[in-house]
Amino acid sequence: MKIPLAFKIILSxxxxxxxxxxxxxVYSLYHTADAAVASVASSGKLTDILKAEPxxxxxxxxxxxxxxxxxxxDPGHSGAELTDSLMVASIDVTTKKISLVSIPxxxxxxxxxxxxxxxxxxxxxxxxxxKSVVQEVTGLTINHTVLMNYGALKNMIDTVxxxxxxxxxxxxxxIYDPMxxxxxxxxxxxxxxxxxxxxxxxxxxxxxxxxIAYGLPNGDFDRQAYQRKIAQALLTxxxxxxxxxxxxxxxxxxxxxxxxxxxxxSVGQIRRLYDLGxxxxxxxxxxxxxxxxGSLLADYTSYDGQSALVPAAGAGVYSGIQxxxxxxx
Length: 329
Description:
329 residues; alpha+beta; Nucleotidyltransferase, domain 5; 2 domains; two-stranded antiparallel sheet; disordered N terminus; LytR/CpsA/Psr_CW_biosynth; membrane
C-alpha cells in the first residue's frame, strides 16, 4: 500500500525538519525525529539524511523493494501478523519509473516444505522467508524490505487532517462490508484515519448472519485497488498541504512512524530513495490478467479446505506471472 508513499513521508518530514523553525523547539523536534529514525531504519541517525547512500542492487540498474503490511498494532484483529498487504516497488534507476506490483494475499505457495497462503509465510519465516517466496513468485531479486502495520496509515492520515478518496463502485449505493461494519457512498469522500483503514480492509467477504455486502465484487483485487487510491490520496495531501511545514505537524508525522515501520534500509539509503522518488513516474501492476486479458490466476481449494489462488499454469508454475511482470516494468 503504501511504500513509495511511506518513504516520501519519512523523508519529507525529516528533511523539512532540518530547514523549518529554529531554536530550542527545533532542537527538541530533532531528538524526537532522531529517535523515530532509529526505530525505523536499519542504521544511521537523523543527520545522515543529508548524504545519500546507494541502494542495494543499484549498480544493476534496478532496485526491488518488498513492502508488507500487517495488523500487529491491533490486538483485536484476528490474524494480526498475517501480511495482508503485499507488493514490490520495482525502481528503474535510470528512468526513475516505479512499478508497484501487487501480490494477492491468497496466493498458494510452498515455504520450507509446507504449503500455505503467501500472507502466512511471515509467521514462520519472517521477512527473510517472505522475501525468498516473493522472489520465487515474481522472478525479481529483492534488494530491500519494509514492514508496516496499519497503525502507520491511520496515524499519518489523521495527522494531515484526513484525505479525499473517490469511491467508484458499480453499485449505486457505494460500498458496504458488514463484516467490519463499514459503508461509504460513491463519489469523492473525505476520510479520517479510521475510515480509510476500514476501506483498506474491506473485501465483501461472505457473512454468516444474512447481511449482504456490496460494492466490491472482485474481493481482494478491489481492496488492493482502494489501498493504492488511499496511498495516492495521502501523498497528494502531504505534497500539496502547507500544514506539512508546520513543526508540530512534522513532529507528529515522524512520531506516527515510530514503532509502526521497520526496514533494512539505512537512513542514507532512504535519502537516496527519496531523491529517486521526487522525479519518478508511478505504474500500478496487478497480477490478475495478462496483456491480452488472459487469466494469470486460477481458484484453488487446499487440502484443508482453504479457498486460495494458484497460477493458471498450475501450482508453483510462476513463469507466466514472471513474464507478465517483466513486460510491465
